[in-house]
Amino acid sequence: MHKTKEDEELIPIGDVATSLGLTTRTLRYWEEVGIIEAAQRPEGGSRAYTPYIVRRLKFILKLKELGLTIKEMQDLYEAYGDARRTDNMIPRLIDILDVHINKVDEKISQLSSLRKEIVDYRQKMVEKFNLSKE
Fold first, then answer.
1. Distance between CA atoms of residues 88 and 76, nearest Å
2. Which residues contact 133 (CB under 8 A, 6 or more apart)?
3. Angle CA(120)–CA(123)–CA(126) in degrees, nearest 5?
4. What percent of the chain has pLDDT over 90?
5. What is the rounded average pLDDT of the residues 60-78?
6. Which of 16, 50, 59, 116 is the most exposed place for a label (fewest CB within 10 A)?
7. Which backbone phi and psi does 46 adopt, to 5 degrees?
8. How far apart are the first and last CA of the chain?
9. φ and ψ at 117, to 5 degrees?
């Protein structure tokens, strides 16, 4: 582990990737697309992250798990801004989550309808061919 000028611990990219179940390429890509800040590089060393960035990465993983796209995460990062103001980001996050909730509700409705069609079709086949309902 290295230390920054402010005596903040720096965690090597490989260690961060391993601990979060990611690849180093994913971390570099997220830097490139602007959903995390660029990693610091200790003198002559490779990328390393502060505990703050590691917390942000965990938040990003949760957002990814919830189905947010890279573009949506970029929008959130912009709303968060240089001032690191969570209160600027939360309303945007709620809007994005509402969109995702509506999409999930729509998919549930479609799947429910599909299930009914399958059950009905199955029943017709059972009746048509005089099969038991095993």
1. 9
2. 126
3. 155
4. 75
5. 95
6. 116
7. -95, 180
8. 62
9. -60, -40
pLDDT score of 26 more than 60: yes
Q: Which two tokens stand for residue 49?
A: 């992250």
Give pLDDT, residue 91.
93
Helix axes 70-80, 86-128, angle to 10 degrees: 160
Is 50:9 a contact under the CB 8 Å cutoff? yes
What is the pLDDT confidence band of residue 45, given thresholds at 50, 70 and 90? confident
pTM for the complete prediction? 0.80
Beta pairing, strands 2-3 & 48-49 = unpaired
Render the burial of 42-62: b for 16+ CB within 10 Å, e for the rest: eeeeebbbbeebbebbeebee
Answer yes or no: is pLDDT of 134 > 60: no
Among candidates 101, 102, 75, 99, which has minimal Cα distance to 89?
75
Tell me the β-bridge partners of 10.
Answer: 2
Structure tokens belonging to residue 21? 């179940």
The length of the chain is 134
